[in-house]
Amino acid sequence: GSGGEVKAPGSGEAEGSAGGRFERKDVWDMRWSTDNPELFALMEKTRMYIFRNLVPEEPVLSSAYLCSFSDLEIRAVLLDQLMKEPDERSKEYVLKFETKALRETRELLERPTLGEASSFIEANPHPRLWRLLAEVCLQKGDFPLAEKAFVHCGDYCGIQFVKRLLLLDDPKKQGAEVATYFGNFDDAEKLY
């Protein structure tokens, strides 16, 4: 559209649209997710919206310019502030925003059991979510679920690592191998 309008043909009724059309006013920046065609982010006035299938998540107050959108994470830069203070070279002008699915997965993975997280990820599949589940499963010693998660995110090395863990008969050795996997070599040494 012209003058800050975004129009796209929609499939079905989308929130805030008429006749199955998607329309937004005062849009000044937009990025599609590079790894999920259902996701895009846009800047509308001083708010950033993330859309999944044309349905918006809660907006985030921001006037940053969108740089990239992949792995359920948006990178943006506060270009106006950077232009005012170019000598600062500060990383604080580069912002990261996570999608709702990524934030909710992190919250669910902090719970004692992983069943809810696994169900949520199955309903909202993405390689990054499966990878997060696999890593938490390794740390908690749930190797069958870790293997399933590695399969879903296509991590062949992770699958082989879990198979190797299952061949070890000692939980301490398994723990040491997991610590090594995450680069915690001091912890691994203590366990061996």
UniProtKB/TrEMBL annotation:
- Return the protein name: IFT121 second beta-propeller domain-containing protein
Which Gene Ontology cellular component annotation is one that this UniProt entry carries? non-motile cilium
Organism per entry: Phaeocystis antarctica
According to its UniProt entry, the protein's GO biological process terms are: intraciliary retrograde transport; non-motile cilium assembly; protein localization to cilium
Please tell me whether the keyword Cell inner membrane is annotated for this protein: no
Cite the IFT121 second beta-propeller domain residue spans from the record: 18-98
| Keyword Repeat carried by entry | yes
Which UniProt keyword terms apply here? Repeat, WD repeat
User: Which Pfam family, any one of them, does this sequence belong to?
Assistant: Beta-prop_WDR35_2nd
